[in-house]
Write a structure and sequence with these properties.
Layout: E1 8-14, E2 29-35, E3 59-65, H1 76-86, E4 87-96, H2 104-109, E5 117-119, E6 122-124, H3 126-131, H4 134-138, H5 152-162
Length: 212
């Protein structure tokens, strides 16, 4: 008798260099990628504004790393609506975006192109945070250009307007690299998984699954 539990599904939205956190890369998870980069593996769900290949209420967790900033402002409601559509009741969405508000002091000083921090792609400046990592875009990834941005308040409003409830927006104490968790549950409950930025640079080592 096979007593193995069915795999849980995580929809990984982002771009190729960002890995899932360790607790979502275990053997109990099946990963589906929806990636901005054209050179990622083929198990993708297409644009985040149209995930028709994914059934309603078909994923347990959405892990989104900087996938919202490349959208035009009028596309955000559609993307968030799609996230909500594919989440199962009780599912959780972890959304990470840059905190534009935290850049205000650096912008006021006039230093737009100095290094803020090192990412897996290389040095990041104010210009890179606001409009996309210049070297990556120049290397043939125009899809990584950013067209919108967020503060804690605007992100909260966008998620609430899309129907996410409850919403938790967390500003981390990392300068210029604020991580926001936005858990959501259709049954009114939500859990937040702890996450460390160190997991971003680890090898993926993940288990993938084809779309259904």
């Amino acid at each position: 008798m096979n007593t193995a539990l069915p795999l849980k599904t995580v929809l990984h939205v982002g771009w190729g260099l960002v890995s899932l956190p360790e607790d979502l890369r275990s053997s109990e998870w099946r990963e589906i990628r929806c990636d901005l980069a054209p050179d990622v593996p083929p198990e993708t769900a297409g644009s985040i504004t149209d995930t028709a290949q994914l059934a309603e209420a078909s994923v347990d967790v959405i892990w989104s790393s900087h996938s919202l900033e490349p959208l035009l402002p009028h596309e955000l409601p559609r993307a968030l609506s799609e996230f909500l559509r594919v989440l199962r009741p009780g599912g959780v969405a972890h959304l990470m975006v840059f905190d534009v508000q935290s850049l205000a002091e650096r912008i006021a000083s006039g230093d737009l192109d100095g290094e803020l921090y090192r990412s897996p792609s290389g040095p990041m400046s104010v210009l890179d945070v606001l409009w996309g990592h210049g070297p990556s875009i120049a290397a043939g990834r125009p899809c990584l250009a950013r067209r919108t941005g967020f503060s804690a308040a605007t992100l909260q409003r966008q998620l609430s307007a899309a129907g996410f409830a409850p919403v938790s927006v967390e500003r981390r104490g990392q300068t210029f690299r604020t991580v926001r968790y936005c858990p959501t549950a259709r049954d009114g409950r939500a859990t937040v998984r702890p996450w460390s930025p160190r997991t971003r640079c680890r090898p993926l080592g993940r288990r993938r699954g084809a779309l259904r």
